[in-house]
């Protein structure tokens, strides 16, 4: 069958890859699967139930879940095939943003995963005149449950109405409105059509490796990134297209356990997760002591010295792989074919290290507005430090100021109810302005230098690209998070969140008292002096105008809940500065 709309992926899977375990979610400690046929049948029930509720094409339905689960997938299918528009919302955003999104999109019904999210929505419900009802996936006393919609649609007599509606849906019809996480100002509603997403899935598909000896339905995926984010959602359709089994992880905290249970072949990741995985590996390897630690550090040296990325070739590389790196692969379940990385820049040193450890990482690049993939590395053509070749159906143009602009079928329709902002992000000849700076090298690989909006100018008139400096700084074991600042100031400085776990181990080894709490450690003169040496070393690699002259340590871990990280673990720069404004003022000698 020809795939033209996002709901066609599920139908394609039923026709070509019917299986018993299409989607698998853990409920009350047990993995529960749903077959391809059951998935489509339930989606049809949802469609019929929504029609009985009075839902019409173009009506908006919000989906909010703490962790991705099968119910979300069923709702997405049921909503899309009757021409309604899904509005996936991040669970962690503020009630004020909920209220803005619901009113901006004229949301009629909302489906949430649990009591906590229900309470959050109920608080703003009186302020949203369009909102008719809220349903939960979990059984919550006193709340309407999504099973009521399934029951409403249990009568198959109205399936012909569903079929007629789905047949009438055009590829250019609106499929979803995805609101940005609102790092600055109010969230923007990105309008994506069926064609936008389908075109991106089909163009990205050739970049995913095929494995000899494995049937498509034998390949297991572990999905943990928020499905309200277009990166994971596009992959969600790509997995359906290929007939893979998708296991939805319980949470980031339980990733380790879920990996052991599922033994996945493919996972999508963000750079922060790769950094955390490596930090755990390093801590375990260096704390083993004696001969084990010496072998571990020797193997890292062999890995670093390896010239050609890929399988071990010489005797030392084979020994290092056998003794150390095979354990890394076992730690990721033993079956990993590839990790697909997106959302932010991955440190090249970590990318190379994992590649040489037999854990291929396909790093890509894109935005919500581009559905999302613009470019991605592919098997056999990985170039560390780049985001791969541009997808075949896209045209990328580097503007005179270095900004990456793109044109093609996966570029969004515009911002919902905001024509002025839509016009601002397109060039006169129709290219979407990504806001990123980069270049394409002689081999066709795209390099991302920095975010155009994140680059700043010091009072001396020199431009500084903070993300490049931050990625280099995080190579230090002492630094978990860092934000380089200095817009309009005389010099760059930095706010640093130490890796408090590593600091404790370091202090114990050195018999230094730095305290036990993050606040005590951040105020430790010994720790600040030691991190100062890391900054001094970093500065040797930087131009004089971009060297970090002063820094302050923050007394807490930067988290999504504290509002300084996005749901995909990127810095909210404005929020970080506001939260630590006293430390910022101290660095620059500003009066409070």
UniProtKB/TrEMBL annotation:
<keyword id="KW-0547">Nucleotide-binding</keyword>
<dbReference type="InterPro" id="IPR020845">
    <property type="entry name" value="AMP-binding_CS"/>
</dbReference>
<keyword id="KW-0436">Ligase</keyword>
<dbReference type="InterPro" id="IPR042099">
    <property type="entry name" value="ANL_N_sf"/>
</dbReference>
<dbReference type="InterPro" id="IPR020459">
    <property type="entry name" value="AMP-binding"/>
</dbReference>
<protein>
    <submittedName>
        <fullName>Long-chain fatty acid--CoA ligase</fullName>
    </submittedName>
</protein>
<dbReference type="Pfam" id="PF23562">
    <property type="entry name" value="AMP-binding_C_3"/>
</dbReference>
<dbReference type="GO" id="GO:0016874">
    <property type="term" value="F:ligase activity"/>
</dbReference>
<dbReference type="Pfam" id="PF00501">
    <property type="entry name" value="AMP-binding"/>
</dbReference>
<keyword id="KW-0067">ATP-binding</keyword>
<dbReference type="InterPro" id="IPR000873">
    <property type="entry name" value="AMP-dep_synth/lig_dom"/>
</dbReference>
<feature type="domain" description="AMP-dependent synthetase/ligase">
    <location>
        <begin position="12"/>
        <end position="416"/>
    </location>
</feature>
């Amino acid at each position: 069958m020809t795939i033209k709309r996002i709901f066609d992926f599920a139908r394609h899977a039923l026709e070509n890859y019917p299986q018993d375990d299409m989607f698998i979610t853990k409920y009350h400690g047990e993995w529960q699967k749903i077959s391809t046929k059951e998935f489509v049948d339930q989606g049809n029930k949802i469609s019929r139930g929504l029609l009985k509720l009075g839902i019409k094409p173009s009506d908006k339905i919000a989906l909010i879940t703490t962790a991705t689960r099968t119910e979300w997938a069923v709702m997405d299918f049921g909503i899309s095939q009757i021409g309604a528009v899904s509005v996936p919302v991040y669970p962690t955003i503020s009630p004020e943003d909920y209220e803005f999104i619901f009113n901006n999109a004229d949301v009629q019904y909302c489906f949430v995963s649990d009591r906590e999210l229900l309470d959050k929505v109920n608080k703003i419900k009186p302020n949203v005149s369009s909102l008719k009802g809220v349903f939960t996936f979990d059984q919550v006393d006193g709340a309407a449950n999504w099973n009521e919609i399934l029951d409403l649609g249990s009568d198959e007599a109205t399936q012909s109405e569903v079929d007629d509606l789905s047949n009438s849906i055009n590829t250019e019809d609106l499929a979803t409105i995805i609101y940005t996480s609102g790092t600055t100002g109010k969230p923007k509603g990105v309008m994506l059509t069926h064609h936008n997403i389908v075109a991106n899935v089909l163009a990205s598909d050739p970049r995913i490796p095929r494995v000899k000896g494995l049937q498509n339905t034998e390949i297991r995926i572990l999905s943990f990134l928020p499905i309200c984010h277009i990166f994971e959602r596009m992959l969600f359709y790509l997995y359906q297209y290929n007939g893979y089994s998708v296991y939805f992880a319980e949470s980031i905290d339980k990733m380790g356990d879920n990996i052991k249970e599922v033994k996945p072949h493919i996972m999508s990741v963000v750079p922060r997760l790769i950094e955390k995985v490596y930090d755990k590996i390093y801590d375990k390897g260096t704390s083993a002591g004696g001969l084990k630690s010496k072998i571990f550090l020797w193997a890292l040296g062999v890995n670093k010295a390896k010239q050609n990325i890929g399988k071990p070739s010489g005797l030392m590389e084979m020994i290092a792989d056998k003794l150390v790196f095979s354990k890394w692969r076992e730690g990721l379940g033993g079956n990993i074919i590839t990790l697909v990385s997106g959302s932010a820049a991955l440190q090249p040193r970590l990318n190379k290290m994992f590649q040489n450890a037999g854990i291929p990482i396909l790093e890509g690049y894109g935005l919500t507005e581009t559905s999302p993939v613009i470019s991605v590395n592919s098997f056999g053509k990985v170039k560390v430090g780049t985001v791969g070749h541009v997808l075949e159906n896209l045209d990328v143009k580097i503007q005179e100021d270095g900004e990456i602009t793109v044109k093609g079928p996966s570029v969004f329709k515009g911002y919902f109810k905001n024509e002025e902002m839509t016009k601002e992000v397109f060039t006169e000849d129709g290219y979407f302005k990504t806001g990123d700076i980069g270049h394409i090298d002689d081999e066709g690989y795209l390099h991302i230098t920095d975010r155009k909006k994140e680059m700043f100018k010091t009072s001396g008139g020199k431009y500084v690209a903070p993300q490049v400096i931050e990625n280099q700084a995080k190579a230090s074991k002492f630094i978990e998070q860092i934000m380089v600042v200095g817009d309009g100031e005389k010099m760059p400085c930095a706010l640093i969140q130490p890796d408090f776990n590593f600091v404790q181990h370091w202090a114990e080894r050195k018999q230094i008292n730095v305290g036990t709490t993050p606040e005590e450690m951040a105020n430790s003169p010994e720790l600040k002096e030691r991190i100062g040496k890391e900054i001094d070393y970093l500065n040797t690699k930087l131009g004089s105008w971009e060297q970090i002259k002063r820094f302050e340590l923050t007394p807490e871990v930067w988290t999504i809940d504290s509002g300084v990280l996005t749901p995909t673990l990127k810095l909210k720069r404005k929020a970080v500065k506001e939260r630590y404004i006293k430390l910022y003022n101290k660095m620059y000698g500003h009066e409070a």
